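Sharing a chain and its predicted structure for anyone who wants a worked example. Both blocks are below, sequence first, tokens second.
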Amino acid sequence: MIPLSEHVCFKTYAVSRYITGLYKLYLDAISLTYPQYLVMTVLWEYGEMSIGKIGEHLHLDNGTLTPLLKRMEKNGLLIRTRSSADERVVLINLTKNGIEIQDKAKHIPEAVQDCMKLSDEVKAQLMASLDEILSTQSVSEI
């Protein structure tokens, strides 16, 4: 039996919980959950997009995203509209409030990285390893 400390899945899970906890310290101040922050980050970077495209960026399916997006719409962060070109497609846009929160959130990634005390070299190695793992997966496989 492999000891728990040698399971890649456990170490990844533990690190994920640690990092998410660091984000929570900053996200509470702007009333966002971590999943909401991820959605906002994609929309701040790319602007209007479909639920499917957001899902591709976040490695989440529509069934997971839809309730999250509905709560965010209720909280005044975004607007969901049907595409005029294809009614099956739901487009997501930020509201004025959603756009304004970006200024309050700009410092968060750097602040979290500072808390983790990662050198730029270690961060680059870690990101490359994680990208390699993610490149072999698709949303439908997760």
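Comments welcome. Residues 48 and 88 are 16 Å apart (CA to CA).
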